[in-house]
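From the methods appendix. Each design record in this collection lists the discretized structure first, followed by the designed amino acid sequence. Records were kept in a plain field format so they could be parsed without special tools. The example shown here is representative of the layout used throughout.

RECORD:
C-ALPHA CELLS (606 positions):
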C-alpha cells in the first residue's frame, strides 16, 4: 500500500504541475489611455541612396513593383517620406564601388544637365503618384570642383571641411538651383534640404561620398543656404545636423575636435542655442541611430541621456527625426555583415524603432537605403543585380516589419500612453491614434521564442471594442498578413518572434476632431488647443441627460470659474474658456455628474 500511495502522490503532483502551467499561463495587461498624447508622427521613410541610380534604369514593370512595395498602402508598406540623394558626381578613381558615387547635375558653375539622375527622379514621381508628399533632399558631399581634395571625399588633415574656403555661396546656389528645378519643372517640392551628412566623421579616402564639417563650417553653410532660399523664394527648410550617432548630439566628438582644433559635435547646444542660425533652420533636429543598439547599454541608456537634454528644446517647439539607420552594430555586437531576410534582424530593427519612438519621442523614423545589392544588413529590399546582372527584387522581413509602423501610423497620428510592455528582452508595445482620432493602432513586438498572451485595459472604451491584427513573422505568408478580429474583452496571443499591429475603429469624430467613442460613463476630453492663448475649447460627453457642473481651478485648488452648472442632454457638448482676467499658469477643469467626476490639465500662456 505504501508504494501505491507514493505512486499516486507522484501522479497527483505531476498532474497539478502540468495543469497549472496550462491553465494559468501568464497574461499581461496592456493599459492604454487615448487621451494622454505624446508626439505627432510626421512620417516613416527611406532613401534612394545609392541603388536607385541603377534600379531606376530597369524595366518599367520591375520599377513599378519596387515602387508599390515601398510606397503603396495597398500592396506595400506605405512609406510617407522619401529621401533623395543629390549626387556629387561619379568618381571612379577613388570610389571603386560602382554604386557609391552618383552623377551631379552640375556641368560647370551655374550650368546644369537636368537629364542626369533621371533614374532617381523616376522614383520621386512614382512615390508622389502613390501618395507620398514629403520629400527630403540630402547631400553627402559638394561637387569635386568645390572641394579641397578635388574628390567627393576628404584627405587626411586637408581642411576642417572639404569645401573650399569661400565656396559656401557657390554650394548654396548649386543646391537651391536644384530645388528650384524640381519645384518648377518636375512639380516635386522638397520639404527639407540637408546640406551636411554625418559631419563628425573624417571621410578620408573612403569608398563612398562624404564630407566632414566643423560646427562653424555648418553654420556658414546654413547662412549662405538660407539667404539663397529666401532670394529665390523657395520654401524648403534647412535640416541639420544628421549626426552619425546619438552621443554626438550632447557630447563633443573629441577625436576629430582635438585633431583639427575646432568643435565637432555637441550639436544641440551648437545649433539650437545659436541665435545667428536657430531661426534659419528647421525646428527638426535630424540624426541617425547608428552605433546605438547594444542591448545591455546603448539601446536604452543613450536614448534616456539624450531625451533628458531634448526635453527643454521639445518645450520650445523643436522636434527630433531619426533619419538614417541600418544594423551596423547589432544588439550583441554581431555587426552588420551577412544579408538577413529573416525576423532575426527585423526584430533588432523593430526594437530600435520602438525605443526611438517611445524614449526619444521621434516624430519621424527613416531607414537608410531602400534597396541594397550587398551581403549586409542594410536593405529593405535586396537585389543580386551587382553579381549576376539579373533584375531581381528580394523582399526582407525588415521591409514588412517597418510596414507594421509605416502602413498604419500615417502622418498626423499621435502616440498615446501605452503601459505594460516595454521589455527589450521580451515584448514591447506602443499605441497611436490617427490624425482624425478615428483609429487606434497598437504595435507589439515579441522578440522571444514563445507566444505571449495579452489583455487590454482601455479607458472609456466598451468591452466589445474590436481590433484587427496584422502579423509579420518568419512564416512565409506573414508579411503584414491580416489575421483575426477580436474583442478587447478576449485579449490576444502574440506569436513568437513576430511584430503584430492591431487596428481598431474608435468611432465618429466631433467638431474639433476629438474622439467620440460612445463611452459608458461621462467623459471630459482634453481641451484644444493646449497650451492656449487667448482661449481654448473644452468638450465633454454625457451618456444620458444629467445635472452637471464644469468648473476651473487654479494650481492651488481654488475655484476660479464655473463654466456650466445645469442639466445637459445626452451626447457631446463644448464650451469656450477665455481666462482674460487670470494669470498664466496651470489650471484644472473638473466635470461633476452625479457620482462621477473627471479632470483635465490646461496651460494658459498669456
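DESIGN:
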Amino acid at each position: 500500500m505504501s508504494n501505491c500511495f507514493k505512486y499516486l502522490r507522484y501522479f497527483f503532483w505531476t498532474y497539478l504541475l502540468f495543469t497549472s502551467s496550462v491553465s494559468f499561463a501568464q497574461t499581461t495587461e496592456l493599459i492604454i489611455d487615448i487621451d494622454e498624447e505624446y508626439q505627432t508622427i510626421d512620417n516613416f521613410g527611406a532613401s534612394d541612396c545609392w541603388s536607385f541610380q541603377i534600379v531606376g534604369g530597369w524595366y518599367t514593370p520591375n520599377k513599378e513593383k519596387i515602387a508599390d512595395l515601398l510606397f503603396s498602402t495597398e500592396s506595400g508598406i506605405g512609406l510617407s517620406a522619401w529621401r533623395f540623394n543629390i549626387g556629387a558626381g561619379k568618381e571612379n578613381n577613388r570610389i571603386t564601388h560602382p554604386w557609391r558615387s552618383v552623377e551631379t547635375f552640375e556641368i560647370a558653375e551655374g550650368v546644369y544637365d537636368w537629364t542626369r539622375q533621371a533614374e532617381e527622379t523616376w522614383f520621386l514621381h512614382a512615390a508622389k503618384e502613390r501618395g507620398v508628399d514629403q520629400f527630403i533632399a540630402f547631400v553627402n558631399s559638394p561637387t569635386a570642383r568645390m572641394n579641397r581634395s578635388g574628390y567627393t571625399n576628404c584627405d587626411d588633415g586637408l581642411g576642417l571641411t572639404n569645401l573650399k574656403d569661400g565656396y559656401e555661396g557657390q554650394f548654396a546656389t548649386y543646391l537651391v538651383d536644384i530645388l528650384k528645378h524640381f519645384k518648377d519643372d518636375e512639380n516635386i517640392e522638397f520639404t527639407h534640404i540637408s546640406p551636411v551628412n554625418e559631419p563628425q566623421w573624417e571621410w578620408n579616402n573612403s569608398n563612398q561620398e562624404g564630407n566632414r564639417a566643423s560646427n562653424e563650417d555648418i553654420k556658414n553653410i546654413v547662412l549662405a543656404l538660407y539667404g539663397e532660399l529666401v532670394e529665390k523664394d523657395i520654401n524648403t527648410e534647412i535640416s541639420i545636423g544628421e549626426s552619425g550617432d546619438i552621443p554626438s548630439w550632447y557630447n563633443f566628438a573629441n577625436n576629430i575636435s582635438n585633431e583639427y582644433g575646432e568643435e565637432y559635435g555637441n550639436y544641440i547646444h551648437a545649433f539650437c542655442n545659436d541665435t545667428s542660425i536657430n531661426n534659419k533652420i528647421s525646428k527638426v533636429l535630424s540624426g541617425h541611430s547608428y552605433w546605438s543598439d547594444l542591448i545591455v547599454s546603448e539601446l536604452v541608456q543613450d536614448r534616456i541621456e539624450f531625451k533628458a537634454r531634448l526635453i527643454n528644446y521639445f518645450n520650445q517647439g523643436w522636434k527630433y527625426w531619426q533619419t538614417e539607420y541600418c544594423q551596423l552594430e547589432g544588439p550583441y555586437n554581431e555587426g552588420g555583415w551577412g544579408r538577413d531576410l529573416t525576423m532575426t534582424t527585423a526584430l533588432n530593427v523593430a526594437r530600435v524603432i520602438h525605443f526611438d519612438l517611445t524614449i526619444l519621442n521621434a516624430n519621424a523614423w527613416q531607414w537608410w537605403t531602400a534597396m541594397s545589392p550587398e551581403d549586409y544588413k542594410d536593405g529593405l529590399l535586396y537585389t543580386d543585380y551587382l553579381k549576376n546582372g539579373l533584375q531581381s527584387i528580394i523582399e526582407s522581413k525588415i521591409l514588412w516589419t517597418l510596414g507594421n509602423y509605416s502602413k498604419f501610423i500615417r502622418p498626423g497620428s499621435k502616440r498615446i500612453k501605452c503601459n505594460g510592455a516595454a521589455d527589450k528582452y521580451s515584448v514591447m508595445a506602443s499605441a497611436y491614434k490617427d490624425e482624425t482620432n478615428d483609429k487606434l493602432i497598437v504595435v507589439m513586438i515579441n522578440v522571444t521564442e514563445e507566444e505571449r498572451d495579452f489583455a487590454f485595459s482601455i479607458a472609456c472604451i466598451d468591452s466589445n471594442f474590436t481590433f484587427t491584427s496584422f502579423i509579420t513573422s518568419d512564416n512565409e505568408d506573414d508579411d503584414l498578413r491580416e489575421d483575426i478580429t477580436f474583442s478587447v474583452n478576449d485579449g490576444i496571443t502574440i506569436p513568437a518572434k513576430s511584430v503584430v499591429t492591431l487596428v481598431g475603429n474608435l468611432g465618429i469624430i466631433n467638431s474639433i476632431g476629438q474622439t467620440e467613442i460612445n463611452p459608458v460613463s461621462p467623459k471630459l476630453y482634453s481641451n484644444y488647443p493646449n497650451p492656449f492663448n487667448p482661449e481654448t475649447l473644452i468638450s465633454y460627453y454625457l451618456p444620458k441627460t444629467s445635472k452637471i457642473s464644469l468648473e476651473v481651478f487654479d494650481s492651488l485648488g481654488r475655484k476660479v470659474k464655473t463654466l456650466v452648472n445645469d442639466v445637459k442632454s445626452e451626447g457631446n457638448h463644448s464650451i469656450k474658456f477665455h481666462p482674460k482676467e487670470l494669470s498664466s499658469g496651470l489650471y484644472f477643469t473638473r466635470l461633476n455628474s452625479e457620482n462621477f467626476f473627471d479632470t483635465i490639465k490646461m496651460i494658459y500662456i498669456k
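APPENDIX NOTE: Residues 588 and 601 are 5 Å apart (CA to CA).
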